[in-house]
Design brief:
Strand content: 15-25%
Helix content: 25-40%
Order of helices and strands: HHEEEEEHEEHHEEHH
């Protein structure tokens, strides 16, 4: 109950910080003995592959209205990835707007655990995009994933095989999602991810220099921040 009470407060950014932090749990005294203190970690950011992953579908939550969500990925029991699926040929914007509606109608129901979602995914089977949890998000801030050669993985099966591998989605959440001072959660685009990974690999395993060529508006600041 104490843990749930701790989790059930703050806005989306506050909860994202709690997700990455430790919780100091003071246990009750027993027979006059001093209470022990445990430190609860909700997400392993250092060894991101060893978190516990589960997939479920058709979870219903009732807030202002009752909503039923298509697919949810739980990491250590918390819903951190939400997937909204539409039939082939349907507009992706429909799924995007549906998630926005969930945010206002039911994500804060109960203990508000769906406010811990870090990454949303929308797909009509042919086109698949991802974006971070931000109530003021615009559709223009949804992204396709690519391979290292910048080939788009828009088909749902191709996207799932790469982006939703447990180690990869956990790394995206723990290393490539940024909580800004403006309380906006941002997730990196594929070329920012690959650039940062290449920089780190170069530093760790060689004595060589390197450079990355960027254009205006491509997210140079965020890339350099994550690399450093």
């Amino acid at each position: 109950q104490r843990i749930l009470h701790h989790l059930n407060s703050g806005n989306v950014a506050d909860r994202a910080r709690k997700l990455r932090d430790h919780f100091e749990l003071k246990r009750d005294e027993v027979d006059g003995r001093r209470a022990d203190t445990s430190y609860i970690r909700f997400l392993n950011c250092d060894e991101w592959c060893v978190n516990e992953f589960q997939v479920t579908n058709q979870i219903s939550m009732e807030g202002k209205r009752k909503n039923r969500y298509d697919v949810t990925i739980l990491i250590n029991g918390l819903p951190l990835v939400q997937i909204e699926l539409k039939r082939r040929g349907a507009e992706l914007k429909v799924a995007f707007h549906q998630i926005n509606r969930y945010q206002h109608e039911s994500y804060d129901a109960g203990y508000g655990l769906f406010q811990y979602v870090q990454v949303f995914i929308i797909s009509n089977g042919v086109n698949t995009k991802y974006f971070s949890n931000n109530r003021n998000q615009a559709f223009q801030q949804t992204f396709f994933w690519t391979d290292i050669y910048n080939e788009r993985l828009s088909d749902l099966n191709e996207f799932t095989a790469e982006f939703l591998k447990p180690c990869h989605i956990a790394k995206m959440i723990t290393h490539y999602t940024v909580i800004g001072a403006d309380d906006v959660i941002r997730v990196l685009r594929p070329y920012q991810f690959y650039a940062t990974e290449a920089l780190v690999e170069r530093v760790k395993n060689t004595n060589d220099n390197g450079y990355i060529w960027h254009t205006t508006g491509s997210g140079k600041t965020l890339t350099s921040f994550k690399a450093s």
